[in-house]
Design brief:
Blueprint lengths: L1 E2 H4 L15 H10 L15 E5 L5 E4 L16 E6 L4 E8 L2 E6 L8 E6 L3 E4 L6 H4 L1 E5 L2 E7 L6 E9 L4 H5 L4 E9 L5 E6 L4 E2 L10 E7 L2 E6 L12 E5 L2
Parallel strand pairs: 1-4
Antiparallel strand pairs: 2-5, 2-8, 3-4, 5-6, 6-7, 9-10, 9-17, 10-11, 11-12, 13-14, 13-15, 15-16, 16-17
């Protein structure tokens, strides 16, 4: 088997633009036992942070879409990619003995999402994050978010930009890159924050109109996890993903 940071180069990038599953999609997902390719904050199970606690290698396991009957203990379900003790992971839904985990290395934007043994993971207790813990410039492929102190104590200002098609030279040459922006000032609660972009002010997400850009953020381990409602820019533009703080 191959350590994840090497093996990940053989897989395509996570599908950051996949739509959140509706009721029919949820039933299909149940049949395939497919964990989300990008952690979601606005729907689905609550996310958590944990570390691999099992000794040796903890392999990712295929889902039912890749092989019928997976995830499961059958060796045929085992992926080549694996994690090692101490690796941090973002944890999503659990199916029996398996939990959906997302890992992102320090040197790439690829990352990996898949099922791992729930027994191999030690979940860390969520705790409040200080304002300083939010600050910085956070990046993923085709997106950057800058968090600075807000104008009032306990608040942060969030602004960012994202593109779709920015990595395609042909699309760039013909001006076919789509762009999006987010901006808002919010008081984080614990390790989470959210806001809607109203016409003239930052609003709580529940007060935003359906057409307003809505953003959800979580600080999990060393990462900033972001979700949106796909209304924050041009066609296919989204801020969804796992962001790493730039040194």
């Amino acid at each position: 088997m191959t350590r994840l940071r090497h093996a990940a180069r053989r897989w395509p990038a996570p599908l950051l633009l996949a739509l959140l599953a509706g009721p029919a999609g949820a039933q299909e997902n149940e049949a395939r036992n497919e964990c989300r390719r990008t952690p979601a904050l606005s729907t689905g199970p609550a996310l958590a942070y944990g570390r691999i606690a099992a000794t040796g290698r903890t392999a990712f396991v295929k889902d039912g879409l890749a092989r019928a009957g997976c995830p499961g203990p059958d060796p045929a379900c085992r992926e080549r990619a694996y994690l090692v003790p101490g690796d941090g992971v973002i944890l999503g839904e659990r199916r029996g003995a398996w939990i959906c985990a997302t890992y992102r290395g320090d040197r790439d934007d690829m990352g990996r999402t898949g099922w791992v043994s729930a027994e191999a993971v030690a979940v860390e207790t969520s705790s409040a994050v200080s304002v300083e813990g939010w600050l910085g410039t956070w990046t993923r492929a085709e997106a950057q978010i800058r968090v600075t102190p807000g104008g009032r104590p306990g608040t942060v200002s969030v602004d960012g930009g994202a593109t779709w098609g920015g990595g395609d030279p042909d699309r760039a040459a013909r001006g076919g890159i789509h762009t999006g922006e987010i901006a808002g000032t919010v008081a984080p609660k614990g390790d989470a924050a959210s806001f809607a972009m109203g016409e003239s002010e930052t609003l709580p997400v529940e007060r935003g109109d359906p057409a307003d850009c809505k953003v959800w953020l979580r600080r999990l381990g060393p990462w900033l996890v972001v979700d949106d409602n796909l209304a924050c820019g041009g066609v296919n533009v989204t801020f969804r993903g796992v962001y790493r703080r730039r040194p």
